Amino acid sequence: MPLIIEKSLAGQRALVTGSSSGIGAAIAVALAEAGARVAINYMSDAEGAGEIVDQIQALGGEAIAVQADVSQEDQVIAMFQQVIGTWGSLDILVNNAGIQLDAPFVEMTLKQWETVMAVNLTGQFLCAREAVKEFLRRGVVPELSCSAGKIICNSSVHDIIPWAGHVNYSASKGGLLMFMKSLAQEVAHDKIRVNAVSPGAIKTPINRSAWETPEAEADLLKLIPYERVGESADIARAVVWLASDASDYVVGTTLYIDGGMTLYPGFREGG
Ligand code: BGC
């Protein structure tokens, strides 16, 4: 059963960073189901990226795998040259790549701090900059979309929920919230739409320990009013909508997709 039925992205070209696994992989497949050609960016998991390319081709879609570390300017520039060189232009960037390197605050190394900032924040900056350059060069192509390009930033509920033991991660996501809004404000005039999705607890390798055992899952569910742990498909569906003209008037917004995690569930009985 396909996730997406309507071909709302027919003819468009998308790049999804960090899409060899997890939420990024689901987003890539869903964009392809909606008719887009999709570039699968990966840093080291060439095999995973190849599997997602195969999956998209099996659905009758078009995909390529592109290697780049999003925190490295030269690699990002080369990746965009490769994608734009292959398909002529780009219509959708999903800034998805992100990592967690957790530690109690006083044990957190400068390397852990800098690496998380480099991937989660600088990586989104570098990729968005290349995408905006291309969107400005090409402008609106009415047959494809009523906007000149769409950027969707994958953030986290921790762009507003503080997270002890994860100070580098939550700081990067908090920074991303204002990055997204400031960029959206700057480029809306050029008909470029920038928005974000902020997932809550989604079953992926990044948070395996939080849902892997029944005890851990029961603990996690206390934080989720809707009483289920999320699936990557929950995020992928929303990203397709944000990339399509169905959301044309949505500019600079964050969609929290979290089963209600941001509703302060502790206050259901307390307060
Ligand atoms: C983190 C996950 C965590 C979720 C909810 C995400 O941004 O990457 O590890 O389970 O937020 O706390």
UniProtKB/TrEMBL annotation:
Presence of the UniProt keyword Magnesium in the record: no
Annotated GO biological process: monocarboxylic acid metabolic process
InterPro entries given in the database record: NAD(P)-bd_dom_sf, Sc_DH/Rdtase_CS, SDR, SDR_fam
Entry GO MF terms: glucose 1-dehydrogenase [NAD(P)+] activity
SUPFAM superfamilies, per database record: NAD(P)-binding Rossmann-fold domains
EC class name: oxidoreductase
E.C. designation(s): 1.1.1.47
Keyword Transport among UniProt keywords: no
A Pfam family the protein falls into: adh_short_C2
Keywords: Oxidoreductase
Protein family: Belongs to the short-chain dehydrogenases/reductases (SDR) family.
Annotated NCBIfam families: PRK07231.1 (NF005559), PRK12826.1-2 (NF009466)
Entry protein name: Glucose 1-dehydrogenase 1
Source species: Methylotuvimicrobium alcaliphilum (strain DSM 19304 / NCIMB 14124 / VKM B-2133 / 20Z) (Methylomicrobium alcaliphilum)
